[in-house]
Fold:
Amino acid sequence: MYVGLSDADLAPRIADGDREAEAELCRRMSPRIRLYALRHLRSSSAADDLVQQVLLKVLESLRSARLREANKLAHFVLGTCRMTVLDLRRSAQRQEELLAIFGGDLVPEAPPMPKLDDRQLALCVQRLKERERSVVVMTFYDEHTAAETAGALGISEANVRVIRHRALQLLRACMGAVA
Amino acid sequence: MTTSPRGECSTPIDATVLMDYWLGALGPPEEDVVELHLMTCDTCGDRLRDAIALADGLRTLARSCSLQVVVSDGFVEHAAETGLRVREYAPPRGEGVQCTVAADDDLLVARLAADLTTASRVDLSWCDLRGVELQRQADIPIRADGAGVIVQQSITWAKASPTSSMIARLLAVDDAGGERVLGEYTFHHTRTIPGPPGPQSP
Structure:
């Protein structure tokens, strides 16, 4: 029944007490919030926690009709993500309190991460040019910035970015992905 | 940005931008645009998951130390600081070194000192004792100080490799394809893990 509805269409329904609309919003937003959380927290378990906390805050606001413009829902969710991450960084204790209160029942199971063929990836990396391989290894070993890699290899930061982009395009093609 | 009710889009974010986003390499305005898009677009979310999987695979591969690759001083230091057991060999230019790896070694590097400041392109050629080239690493990155290169050899390969000798040659290559030897280093590898014998040296 919600297939034709946009995310924004769900907001007024939630304000009207439609629990199925809430479930649909959670189903849609959970994987998106989780990606944000993975990017900023770099931890699968912390990402799961953030999804719970953000959804609770968003639903609370929507139920009480505090979101005035439904078409700003994405902005609102993103803003809530940012504020929650800031809160988490400010206070790990608060995170534990929130988790103790809300538990783990709210969030649908996270989408599975794609699986890579590790042997194929190793072959693809070995086929890269020397500079490309060095940049890839030094970038991903510990997520070094372009500036750090540039300093280590004696090339410019811009050059590192160009080499990294080209190497990743080659790797995606070698792994059979569409860039 | 064009999105459908089901979170699909007709203006997907480039995979390169998604990887830069994951690496934290975008500026704040670009990151804002990407994050807002990802809040509405499941297609790009799936593609970001592909980028994360690739990044995770590359991190695992890089940390396996099983690649032959030119690295930096900082890389080796950082690997040691993170608990890896590093085995290094630094034969003097024109000389050889006896080398081996232990079962619990994690990272194997060769430090090849040479004056590279006059070379616009440097190749690293791996030869047998007769001088027959077995492998060439073309146009390797050179340290900023031009004082040599650090080469990571695959620890997996080294552990399984039979007793044998190999020569590493640093070559300056000019635009016309002419070559000049900048340094030559011989590695006499002794097998530590049991296995079949290697090829006989001449």
The mean pLDDT of chain A is 88.
